[in-house]
Amino acid sequence: MELILWRHAQAEDGEPDAGRALTAKGKRHAARIGAWLDGQLPEGCRVLVSPAVRCRQTADGLGRRYTVHEALDTGSTPERMLEACGWPDHRFPALLVGHQPQLGELAALVLAGARQPWKIRKGSVLWIQGSDAEDSQPFIRLAVGPELIGKLR
After folding, report:
1. DSSP state, residue 73
2. Looking at the whole model, is its pTM more than 0.70?
């Protein structure tokens, strides 16, 4: 199973936290990464998104249907997020659009076997390839941010 982690793009400051919207820069970055991801995602990829406004707006940049899932909210845990997407046994890949520190901790848990304070920058994608063999470990297939995608297009 492939697991693609996409941290929401830059958001405005303010309260309530769940209602913070993307900034103009955040909208540009979400559209840039979303357009690129749309051409890269594997067939059958499921898209799960935090209910926070900034995450839904980031996912809108993809231009695909997505499912808002409470397990990706700001108060969630990496374990709940993995359970929600069925890692590592689900038949189809998953794209998770969420928050720090949960996404970084989830990446550490999957790749290093323990929660650690790994950082995923705003608007960036970390693509993890699961193992197909029992003795093989998951690995990072791609780590990219909106600035680099802008230069590649």
Report:
1. S
2. yes
